[in-house]
């Protein structure tokens, strides 16, 4: 029973939040006269002693004391004697743990936000460097149209901006204090919930005691936002893994963020990227775990809810590592731009530009232009050359309306430079997007 019941092996991570909650609670008990001012002061000082003890020695995993709440109360009694017993007046472990965990998740969100901002700055720096570097843009992983590497990296900047706003939303919704909801029904003591809420930096108290002690949607929102970040990072990791492979050769990962093989001396393996990709699966698993734990629970508290913490802690640790690793890889990777350019040139990626030119200059309907271009691509493919290497007489043989001005749009540089629509890949557009992004971050 002791072993299955105890949460101290993992919830000791909440000790700071638990003591902060208790300090706010006892200050309120003193201010409202529920506990005498002298006792309240003694308890408050005792909580500081407990904090110093944990800071110096860590939190012991004492299964008899079950969880961080019992543990801290026992430590408090050791420090100040029986007056410690007054702390738990007008409180239950149910509102206590809900308060602790909300505080912890709030801190976690703030940490993730700092890390994500760092990741965005890394993306911006590399995007700026490569605003003109041409690479193939893909659909179906087939060469589609040329884009710039800067544009590609900025796509991840945008995803990360939305990720950060998801965390900000979760933070705002979750920033309400359950303290004072007591076990489930509230309390008959004349407590001041506004006071404890303000002391803990919450925007105010939660409005329904049953809801406050028995919902964990704030944790699920954290995990949802975390899973979405992990998913985005996993896609970039996957691209780095592909790009670092020899047939692609688009990127060289730094020594710092890759590993060797114990048998093959030539190897430089993208282990960190693979683990970011792998960790995303585990983080999604954490989200699933908590949703499934919660879905069948009648109101209010059931002990199943003690299982809310391990998946959140696990996801948070994995996410922190993943963001740090991806940031490091982006910062230190060498992009092999000649290979990227050659791949863009080899894939007939300016075929759309030829078709667009026929529409614009020849007044040809797009469907027909598409067909004419298809014939040009087929011919170039047969000869093993690029579109802009086809002699003019071959092009005019396909369609007499083609003239030598067409060569102005067939190069990959001309192609990307022409994509000036808002949100497009033209280097001028990408530079403007980077400038706007920098302003947003500042
Ligand atoms: N360790 C418990 C948890 O994490 C604290 C709340 C226990 N409440 C109770 N009534 N048994 O959920």
From TrEMBL:
Keywords in alphabetical order: Amino-acid biosynthesis, Arginine biosynthesis, Cytoplasm, Lyase
Main location per the UniProt record: cytoplasm
Record-listed E.C. numbers: 4.3.2.1
Coiled-coil positions: none
Superkingdom, taxonomy of origin: Bacteria
Listed CDD domains: Argininosuccinate_lyase
Associated pathway: Amino-acid biosynthesis; L-arginine biosynthesis; L-arginine from L-ornithine and carbamoyl phosphate: step 3/3
Ranges where the Argininosuccinate lyase C-terminal domain occurs: 348-417
Entry GO terms, CC: cytosol
Family under the similarity heading: Belongs to the lyase 1 family. Argininosuccinate lyase subfamily.
Protein name listed in UniProt: Argininosuccinate lyase
